[in-house]
Amino acid sequence: MQRVVELIRIPLADIVSKIKEKTGLAEQDILARVDKKCQQLAGLVSKDGAAHIIANELGVKLLEHGGRQKIKDVFAGMRSVELIGKVLQVYDARDFTRADGTPGQVGSFLIGDETGTLRIVCWGDQTKIIRDLKPGTVTLVTNAQARENNRGYKELHLSDQSRVVLNPPGENVEVKERAAAPRKAIKELTEQDQNVEILGTITESFAPKFFEVCPQCNKSAKGGACTQHGAITPNFSCVFNAIVDDGSDNIRVVFFRNQMERLLNKTTEDVLAYREKLDSFEQVRSDLLGQIVKIVGKVNRNMFFDRLEFVAQLVFTNPNPEEELARMNAVS
Question: Is residue 38 one of the residues assigned to a domain?
Fold first, then answer.
């Protein structure tokens, strides 16, 4: 099987944050330099690429090679990653069958440090470590590879060469409490909002789109082939879009399968069943119109349509009107 080499991908928000930290420049000034660089290069560079150039011009080192990393400094494409964190949640290992009929196993756990949280994905014999994990376990991971999942989030994957040490002597980890997502009006959203909450009404929705995913890494696998695992017998996942309006503006919200299930209050089996009977989803779309939802997520730019979209990370249906009114009055 051909080995796929992943490029290291650093999101624009992280590049801007690093430049801000190292230089003391204001965020708006950095973004203005990025826009100017894009104009100078006649649009032949992305904002991410322009930000890389700006960082280099300012002498800001975006990556620290070698040594132990903090979670915030781990980016998709990095290899031989070493970091230490505290276990926050453990997910059961599950069995799967590869395309050649051989069995496999995959599991994961969530760790955190003072800079953020990260999912650790275990393969094969590495899943045995899950049996010894519990929340609060300090865990040292070495020789792992950072990847991006099909929702755009970074993960750390363990291979046969990776090593996991539980409660290494003399090590202690402080976990950063995740700040509550600030509420924003849709008209105030920017491309840099990576953890923000909106409240609005669903005014339009669209039929879900189903796609093949690899049963091993859960990444998109077109035509029964995964770029990392070759020929596979695929599973299916889906994505669902809706328009949410809060009176200030409206935005397209992207719900991947898990958040789609929360929005519709349906099981995975219920959602995947619509793949075979898509016509029956019309009633679901109709029932959603006028529903008030509270959504925590991040803002992405859809490069094909050159527009901002909101990717749902957590969905709350039927929010309490009295609580929301009290919150609005407290802010004002």
Answer: yes
